[in-house]
Write a structure and sequence with these properties.
single chain; alpha/beta; 7-stranded mixed sheet
């Protein structure tokens, strides 16, 4: 099984997630492509709007979705509109806007590794913020590869039937959530919930929603968690 323990998340999956923000850096120039950890090779970019990338290292393939560029506006505008999941009726009802967002990038997401021996590859899906909802939608389509999923501060996406179906097919899924970040609690009400297991962290005190939701804060929280366990 793919390692998604806190140490592996801190040392491998979080740096690969951070690389997805190459097109919208907090400082410095925009880059043409993400800068990856040593040993990882870029396979391609998820479009439109440079919404992520896919890469590989040996038999391990990763698909990474970035968060939204303007979190505050997204958080204020999110609603609870729902629709049937396009994967099939057994997946129930999901959030309309996040499903529409995934369908917009779907043509550039690798979801079929037909040229690779199925038992010899590992697939990992990563996503931050709304990108987490894209990661679980991609994972649902890659279920036959038994993917691992790690999301960071993702909002709720599906209702009970989606959650039940997802959890029955995807057994290795972790949501990393800071206890002060408000985004994992939206959309409020309307029967939405989360998939997988949660890893709660404490990145320290902050009041600004952008800081509460940042990947740098996730890194601090993971380091504090590991230090406390040492």
């Amino acid at each position: 099984m793919i390692d998604i323990t806190p140490a592996a998340i801190l040392n491998t999956w979080l740096p690969l997630q951070k690389a997805a923000k190459y097109a919208y850096p907090d400082s410095g120039p925009k880059l043409e492509a993400p800068v990856l950890l040593e040993g990882w090779r870029l396979g391609g970019l998820i479009q439109p709007n440079n919404f992520g990338y896919f890469a590989w290292n040996g038999k391990t393939h990763v698909v990474v979705f970035r968060g939204t560029e303007r979190l505050r506006e997204w958080a204020e505008d999110i609603d609870s509109l729902e629709a049937d999941c396009v994967i099939g009726p057994e997946w129930g009802r999901v959030h309309t806007g996040m499903q529409d967002m995934f369908m917009g990038v779907f043509p550039t997401v690798p979801v079929d590794y037909v040229d690779l021996p199925g038992n010899d590859i590992e697939v990992v899906l990563l996503g931050h913020s709304v990108g987490g909802s894209l990661a679980i939608q991609a994972a649902a389509r890659l279920a036959k590869y038994r993917p691992a999923v790690v999301t960071f501060e993702m909002p709720k996406f599906g209702r009970a039937t989606f959650i039940e179906t997802f959890n029955s097919q995807i057994k290795n899924c972790i949501r990393v959530e800071d206890h002060l970040d408000p985004i994992p609690s939206v959309p409020a009400g309307a029967g939405y919930g989360h998939v997988g297991d949660v890893l709660r962290i404490d990145g320290g005190w902050a009041v600004d929603v952008e800081e509460l939701h940042s990947l740098d804060r996730v890194e601090r929280g993971l380091r504090r968690l590991l230090q406390a366990a040492a």
